[in-house]
Design brief:
Elements lengths: L2 E5 L2 E4 L4 E8 L7 E7 L6 E7 L4 E4 L7 E6 L4 E6 L8 E8 L3 E4 L2 E4 L4 E2 L3 E6 L1
Parallel strand pairs: 2-13
Antiparallel strand pairs: 1-3, 3-8, 4-5, 4-9, 5-6, 7-8, 9-12, 9-13, 10-11
């Protein structure tokens, strides 16, 4: 059973930075993808970024490209999301999710696959 645990959320002022961590366990192989999603109050959950851990492929939502960076240490089964220049629209619960692949990029936007495994989430609040 895949288990995911997020950490690193918190309260930050607009323009600030946060680094989220996702600890993954129970992966059957080294060929998997970890994505970060977020859900703001009253809004649908949306994919923020994804990384295929074995080959280092990265996918970003257009709104986060240039501000967010996803990285991983496959040996440690850790994935991070560095978020810079945060704004109030980045507020939400951030989840990491795991599956075999990330999905696709189409016309500069990231479209995720249906991820099978999810963490409990970590709250990110950006104040103005």
């Amino acid at each position: 059973e895949v288990q995911l645990k997020e950490s690193g959320g918190g309260l930050v002022q607009a323009g600030g930075s946060l680094r989220l961590s996702c600890a993954a366990a129970g992966m059957a192989s080294d060929h998997f993808a970890i994505a970060w999603f977020r859900q703001a109050p009253g809004k649908d959950r949306e994919a923020v970024a994804c990384m295929t851990v074995d080959d280092g492929g990265k996918y970003y939502r257009r709104s986060g490209k240039g501000r967010f960076t996803i990285s991983a240490d496959n040996a440690k089964r850790m994935v991070w999301l560095q978020m810079n220049t945060l704004n109030v629209d980045d507020t939400g619960v951030y989840y990491c999710a795991a599956d075999r692949r990330c999905g696709v990029m189409y016309e500069g936007e990231y479209y995720p696959t249906d991820f099978a495994s999810w963490g409990q989430g970590t709250q990110v609040t950006v104040s103005s």
